[in-house]
Amino acid sequence: MSTPSGAHPGNRPARDAADGGPTEPDAIRADIEATREQLGRTVDELSQRLDVPARAKEGAARAKDTAVETYRENPPAVVGAGAALSVLVAFALWRRRRTRRRATVEGALEESRRAHERDAQRARKELAARRAAARKARRKAAQKAEKKARPFARRKR
């Protein structure tokens, strides 16, 4: 901290004496005591400003008071905002876990295995659909052939 020129602690009594300040030992002691008290107050003020946990608690208390006041004024809006915030946080956590899982080798293998399972399931469904379509086509062809063969069977008799 800078001080004005000539205001060094060692020069103060001499300057006070030159300015008509205290020259008596008791007056000098009183001046020193007043300076100590002022310095003590300054140190206390600075320590309060630098006390991060206490300032954080004060900020949290202010935020809580503001939230309570807002809730009293409009409860549904606060509940809705809280629900929206909860959903947003849950979504962010889900995305973060998903990204981390993919970033690891095990996660990449797991994701690859899941993709393979999805592809295999899709292929099984497609194969089943093709088989069903083929059975249906064979059945229709057999019915059609049987229908065509019926008139010839009647004529031969």
UniProtKB/TrEMBL annotation:
<feature type="compositionally biased region" description="Basic and acidic residues">
    <location>
        <begin position="110"/>
        <end position="129"/>
    </location>
</feature>
<feature type="compositionally biased region" description="Basic residues">
    <location>
        <begin position="132"/>
        <end position="142"/>
    </location>
</feature>
<protein>
    <recommendedName>
        <fullName>MYXO-CTERM domain-containing protein</fullName>
    </recommendedName>
</protein>
<dbReference type="Pfam" id="PF12277">
    <property type="entry name" value="DUF3618"/>
</dbReference>
<feature type="transmembrane region" description="Helical">
    <location>
        <begin position="77"/>
        <end position="94"/>
    </location>
</feature>
<keyword id="KW-1133">Transmembrane helix</keyword>
<feature type="region of interest" description="Disordered">
    <location>
        <begin position="1"/>
        <end position="47"/>
    </location>
</feature>
<dbReference type="InterPro" id="IPR022062">
    <property type="entry name" value="DUF3618"/>
</dbReference>
<keyword id="KW-0812">Transmembrane</keyword>
<keyword id="KW-0472">Membrane</keyword>
<feature type="region of interest" description="Disordered">
    <location>
        <begin position="101"/>
        <end position="157"/>
    </location>
</feature>
<feature type="compositionally biased region" description="Basic and acidic residues">
    <location>
        <begin position="26"/>
        <end position="47"/>
    </location>
</feature>
